[in-house]
Amino acid sequence: MRKFVARSHEDGWKATAARPAEVDNRNDWNDLHMKGKLTKRDMARYRYAVSFHGV
For residue 42, which of 32, 54, 51 has the smallest C-alpha distance? Predict the structure, then answer.
């Protein structure tokens, strides 16, 4: 993910990335969402965290 964030910065985009390490080390938030493995609490925490970055 770091290389994708770095590439986004090089292209002039504001970008951040977060991995839900306490849930699953191999999947990112979107992977877990697509697999139906996020709870409503997980989604609320994710949206709260993302709100600080203006994403």
Answer: 32
Q: How far apart are CA 52 and CA 55, in angstroms?
A: 8
Residue 47 phi, psi dihedral angles, 5° rounding: -65, -35
Neighbours of 28 (CB within 10 A): 15
Task: Kindly tell me the sign of the dihedral angle through the C-alpha atoms of 23, 25, 28, 34.
Answer: negative
Structure tokens at 52: 């600080």
pLDDT, position 2 = 80
pTM of the model: 0.43
pLDDT tens digit string along 4-32? 889 999 999 988 776 665 655 677 777 88
